[in-house]
Amino acid sequence: MRKLFIALTALISLQLTAQVEDPTDWTTSVEKISDTEYILITEANIEPGWHVYSQAKGEKDEGPVATEFNFFGTEDFELVGINKETGTYAEYVEIWGMDVYQFANFARFEQKIVLNNPDIKYIAVEAYFMVCDDTQCLPPSPESLIFKLDENVDVVPDDIINAFYDAGEEPIKATGPEAGSIKKKGDKHEKKDLDSDEGDEEDNKSLWTIFLGCLIAGILTLATPCVFPMIPMTVSFFTKQAGGKLQGILYGVFILLIYVLFSLPFHLFESVSPDIFNEFSTNPWLNIFFFVVFIIFAISFFGAFEITMPNSLINKVDKASNVGGLIGVFFMALTLVLVSFSCTGPVIGAVLGSVLSTDGGATALTAGMAGFGFGLGIPFALFAIFPSWMNSLPKSGGWLNTVKVFLGFLELAFAFKFLSNADLVMQWHWIEREIFIAIWVAVFGALALYLFGKIKLPHDGPDQNISVGRMLLGLCSLVFSLYLLPGIWGAPLKLISGFPPPSTYSESPYGVGYKKASGATAAVELPEHAHFAVHDIVAFDDYEEGLAYAKKVKKPVLIDFTGWACVNCRKMEERVWAEPQILSILKRDIVLVSLYVDEKKALPKEDQYTSEVTQKRIRSVGNKWSDLQISKYQVNAQPYYALVDENGNDLKGVEQIGYTPDVDVYEQWLKEGVKKYK
């Protein structure tokens, strides 16, 4: 059954990826300013889910390949200013450890020129770009663009760009915008395809996740010293009056409404500046602000002081509640919200900070506030309908303060996530992976000691007993702290993947006491033309050289069509290849040949050719490997893996696969290939 599942998975993967993708459509137009001045406009429509990358590059010379515009025949005209972009935005990508500048759905470029030769009829430009989606990247590809200055110009030869290259003309590269001028995640949602059911479903799922998370936060806040004693007091008040059940229901609904109303001004901010929430989410200074706020809230929960609303405000609202009717019930609900602020304020701050760190904007904040208000307010309505349920409530006591302190420890832990976000963006290296994990070990270790009664805080009773629930929660915290501990020395900690900085952002990327092997220090003898790749796997970056070595050692070959700027290639290497069962196969049973389709190294003139499949000129090493992939497998996406014998023939019965994050499926595919070869 397992083999059948693996075969079906491979078949589905093949069907999904065995095609030459072309998710962009490029068009050109010309805007005439005067007889000698023009603006050349390039627009690219991008299929939903795919991204094209900006001309701007970040501080590091890494990440996806930046878009380039190469202008030919520049003796007839001059480029004026930068090639302006519309629709680009910056988004922090953890796998690269930096901001990536990209387009989604639509891209527009505008380049101003001044003619030196008024008789020219058209301008030829080659756009060089890369496109990726969530599972694959396509090799950087050239696109020939023709800007007709004269609408009546004759048909331009299809191979005009190749003619320029063959004539030995070096193009002039346009200057793109500076990275600092690109807004964080700007225009991402404005350009969203409104007809995309998949995009709507993804957004709805995200909003429901936020709602449910904040709902749990609201319910937890019920069990705090500021709120819990109010439940029997408030419900008793309503049940003693005529129509009290209806008023009790409205009381709970009004609590929900008040928190939703709190989010409405943020919709106004978003309408004034659509990018405001996107800027919030990746702004390092805002992340530092939330770090400070969370620390203050945590200290408040520990009992050092209380954060309260001004008494004058509470008294005025309380007086308004005596009006009676719907208005009176509303102001009673508002009084509860204000009086309980010392307990609810830090949790609301956590909700606000967490939601602003997403890209959901004001809608996500409203969903969060609705969830929190629902969790806090609806129980009041339910107890008003079913007052007998209050008999099952536990009595007030020291456990209420325990809940409050527990929330304080959680606030303290999450505070450092905000500081880590700022540190990653600014590359300060203050909170590298080891430091972050050590802080969490200390926080959750201290939480365990507190729950076991070994640490006393100001509002804890002197002889407070340890309940069974508190003991079990303490054990969970202790186990979690012990789980985190090996992470300081390089353990992957998949349970909290995404919270600590990536392993590359650490003092010891290979684990404490380890460093990347080199030809001089590696225990494995390095074959000729080979090198140590990721995880010190012996690899070749030339197809023929890899096959020649495979013949010598009589092993099958894993062809890894990859790219320097392929995010999902890095994910496969870090999260799948790093697993011991995969790594042992890659090091022991096969020959790895990694062919980088975005390698820019130029081929010698005599080795350049025109592809029989794509009819494009093959000028670089990356072009050569991309053409090999397309001609051999009719696929142009990466990552893409094929198992072949030492002659380059596909292993019978073993299909090629693409992005496969399931370790078990990938392992069985490798084992099946090794078995078929033998």
Automatic annotation (TrEMBL):
Its main location: membrane. It comes from the Bacteria. Keywords: Cytochrome c-type biogenesis, Membrane, Signal, Transmembrane, Transmembrane helix. It is found in: Membrane. One of its GO terms (cellular component) is membrane. It holds the Pfam family Thioredoxin_7. Residues 172-202 are annotated as: Disordered. Residues 207-420 form the Cytochrome C biogenesis protein transmembrane domain. The keyword Protein transport does not apply. Residues 1-18 form the signal peptide. GO terms for biological process: cell redox homeostasis; cytochrome complex assembly. It is a multi-pass membrane protein. The keyword Transmembrane helix applies. The chain crosses the membrane at residues 207-228, 249-268, 288-305, 326-352, 364-386, 398-415, 435-452, 472-491. GO terms for molecular function: protein-disulfide reductase activity. This is Thiol:disulfide interchange protein DsbD.
